[in-house]
C-alpha cells in the first residue's frame, strides 16, 4: 500500500500555516469578547488580565510551545500537527458553551496549549520543506495566515456586535469549524524529509553509544545555540511584548484614546490587519529572498516605532488613529515576527530546531503573560501615554538587536547554514556523528 503523502508543495505549506490563522484568530476572538465575559461573569480588571494571561496570547501558548517543540523533535513534525487541533477543538467547544468561569478558563487554556504546540513546529516544517531560494516566501505564508486571522475575526466581530456575547460564541464556533477542516486536510501530509534523516541518525547514534539525546540540555550547552537564543529573544520576545498587548487589549487602548464604539474599534483593527496582510504578501514574501534582510527588518521596526510615537505624542484624532493602524499594520507585515520565524529555523540544527523554537516561544509568551496580567490596570490607571512609552522602549530595543545580529542566510540551504554554524563538513549531518564523537571522547 502506498504511503506517499496526498498533500504536498504549497498545499502542504498552507495546511500547516493555518496554525497561525487559528492562533491569531483565537487571540482576537478572546480580545473582542473580554468585555462581554467581564459583564457576564462580573470579572474585575485583574481577573480579565488573568484570563488573557492564560490564553493563546501568553501562558497557555507558552506551555504548549515548550511541550510541542520537544515532541516535534523527538516524535516528528507530523506527530504535532496530527493531534494539536484535536485539543484545540475541545477547548473552543468549552468556550462556545461556557456557562461558568471554570469552563471559560479551561477552554482558554486548552486552546492556548494547542496553538502553542502547533505554531513553532509549523514554522519549522515549512522552513524545512521550502526551497532555499524561496524560504522567506514559504515562511511568509505562515505570517500571512497569522495576519488573515485578526483581519477576518475583527471583521466578523464587527458584524456580530449587536448579538453581544452570543456573537462572541459564534466567532469561537467558526474557529472550531476552521480547525476541523484544517485537521482533516492535514491527515494527508507527509513527514518532513529533513527530520526523517536526522531522526534516523539519532536512533543509530543512540543504539551505538547507549546515550539518549536530551534536546533542551544539548540545546543549552552549545554556546552558538545560546547566542542565537539570546539574539532571537531580543528580536521576538521584546517585539511580542508590544504585539501581545495589542492583540488582546487594543480595543481597550482605542477606548482609552476616545474611541468608545466597539464597531469603530473593530474597524480600526480590520484596517490594521488588512495592511499587515498586504505588507506580508507584497513586502516580506515578495522581497524577503531578494533584498538585504537587515534593511527590510529595520524598515519594519521604524514604522512600528513611528506608529506608537504618534499614538503617544500626537493629538489623537480619527485621521491620526487611521495613520497609526496603517503604520503598525505595514510594520507587522515585514517586521519582527516574520523574520523571527525565518531566522529561528535557519539558526539551529535539525535535531533541535523545533525545541529551540518551542523554548523561544515559551519565553516570549511567558513575558507577554506577565505584562498582560497588569496591562488592563496600568491602562485604566495611567492611560495610553504611560503604557505607550513602555511599548516604544521595547520596540527600539528589538530594532537595535535585530540590526546588530541579523544573520547572512539568504538563498542558502539549511544544510549549508548548519555546517557553517556548527563546524561540520559540507553535507555532513551533526546528528549521530557529533553524538558519537562526544560519547567516544567521554570514554
Terminal residue distance: 45 Å
Q: What is the number of helical segments per DSSP (H or I, 4+ residues)?
A: 18
Fraction of residues in H or I helices: over 70%
What sort of overall outline do the alpha carbons produce when their principal axes are compared? globular
Question: Over all CA atoms, what is the radius of gyration?
Answer: 21 Å
Mean pLDDT equals: 86
Low-confidence region ranges: 425-429, 431-443
Strand content: under 5%
Order of helices and strands: HHHHHHHHHHHHHHHHHH
For the biggest sheet, the summary is: none
Number of strands: 0
Structure class? mainly alpha
Transmembrane segments: 12-37, 43-67, 79-98, 104-123, 144-165, 171-189, 229-254, 266-284, 296-316, 322-344, 356-376, 382-406
Protein name: MFS transporter
InterPro entries: MFS_dom, MFS_sugar_transport-like, MFS_trans_sf, Sugar_transporter_CS
Subcellular location: Cell membrane
Topology:
Elements: H1 9-31, H2 34-41, H3 45-53, H4 59-75, H5 77-96, H6 101-129, H7 135-159, H8 165-186, H9 193-209, H10 215-221, H11 223-256, H12 262-287, H13 293-313, H14 318-334, H15 336-346, H16 353-405, H17 414-422, H18 433-441
Helix pairs in contact: 1-6, 1-7, 1-8, 1-11, 3-16, 4-5, 4-6, 4-16, 5-6, 5-8, 6-7, 6-15, 6-16, 7-12, 7-15, 9-18, 11-12, 11-15, 11-16, 12-14, 13-14, 13-16, 15-16
Membrane topology: Multi-pass membrane protein
Pfam families: Sugar_tr
Domain Major facilitator superfamily (MFS) profile: 12-410
Amino acid at each position: 500500500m502506498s504511503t506517499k503523502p496526498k498533500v504536498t508543495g504549497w498545499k502542504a505549506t498552507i495546511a500547516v500555516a493555518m496554525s497561525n490563522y487559528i492562533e491569531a484568530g483565537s487571540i482576537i476572538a478572546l480580545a473582542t469578547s473580554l468585555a462581554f465575559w467581564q459583564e457576564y461573569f462580573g470579572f474585575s480588571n485583574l481577573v480579565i488580565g488573568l484570563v488573557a494571561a492564560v490564553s493563546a496570547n501568553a501562558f497557555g501558548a507558552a506551555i504548549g510551545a515548550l511541550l510541542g517543540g520537544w515532541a516535534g523533535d523527538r516524535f516528528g513534525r507530523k506527530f504535532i500537527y496530527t493531534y494539536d487541533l484535536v485539543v484545540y477543538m475541545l477547548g473552543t467547544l468549552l468556550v462556545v458553551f461556557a456557562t461558568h468561569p471554570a469552563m471559560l478558563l479551561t477552554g482558554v487554556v486548552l486552546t492556548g496549549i494547542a496553538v502553542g504546540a502547533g505554531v513553532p513546529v509549523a514554522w519549522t516544517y515549512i522552513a524545512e520543506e521550502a526551497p532555499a531560494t524561496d524560504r522567506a516566501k514559504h515562511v511568509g505564508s505562515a505570517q500571512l495566515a497569522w495576519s488573515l486571522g485578526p483581519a477576518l475575526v475583527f471583521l466578523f466581530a464587527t458584524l456580530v456586535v449587536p448579538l453581544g456575547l452570543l456573537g462572541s460564541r459564534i466567532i469561537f464556533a467558526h474557529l472550531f469549524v476552521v480547525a476541523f477542516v484544517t485537521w482533516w486536510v492535514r491527515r494527508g501530509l507527509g513527514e518532513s524529509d529533513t527530520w526523517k534523516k536526522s531522526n534516523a541518525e539519532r536512533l543509530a547514534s543512540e543504539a551505538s553509544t547507549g546515550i539518549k539525546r536530551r534536546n533542551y540540555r544539548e540545546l543549552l550547552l552549545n554556546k552558538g545555540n545560546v547566542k542565537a537564543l539570546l539574539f532571537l529573544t531580543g528580536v521576538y520576545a521584546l517585539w511580542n511584548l508590544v504585539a501581545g498587548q495589542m492583540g488582546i487589549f487594543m480595543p481597550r487602548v482605542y477606548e482609552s484614546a476616545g474611541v468608545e464604539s466597539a464597531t469603530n474599534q473593530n474597524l480600526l483593527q480590520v484596517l490594521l490587519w488588512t495592511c499587515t496582510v498586504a505588507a506580508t504578501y507584497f513586502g516580506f514574501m515578495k522581497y524577503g529572498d531578494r533584498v538585504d534582510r537587515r534593511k527590510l527588518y529595520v524598515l519594519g521596526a521604524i514604522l512600528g516605532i513611528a506608529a506608537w510615537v504618534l499614538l503617544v505624542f500626537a493629538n489623537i484624532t480619527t485621521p491620526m488613529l487611521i495613520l497609526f493602524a496603517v503604520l503598525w499594520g505595514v510594520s507587522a507585515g515585514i517586521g519582527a515576527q516574520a523574520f523571527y520565524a525565518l531566522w529561528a529555523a535557519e539558526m539551529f540544527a535539525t535535531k533541535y530546531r523545533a525545541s529551540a523554537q518551542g523554548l523561544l516561544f515559551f519565553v516570549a509568551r511567558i513575558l507577554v503573560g506577565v505584562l498582560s496580567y497588569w496591562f488592563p490596570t496600568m491602562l485604566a490607571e495611567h492611560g495610553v501615554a504611560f503604557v505607550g512609552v513602555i511599548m516604544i522602549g521595547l520596540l527600539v530595543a528589538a530594532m537595535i538587536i535585530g540590526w546588530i545580529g541579523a544573520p547572512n542566510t539568504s538563498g542558502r540551504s539549511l544544510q549549508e547554514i548548519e555546517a557553517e554554524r556548527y563546524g561540520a563538513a559540507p553535507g555532513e549531518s551533526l546528528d549521530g556523528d557529533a553524538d558519537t564523537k562526544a560519547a567516544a571522547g567521554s570514554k
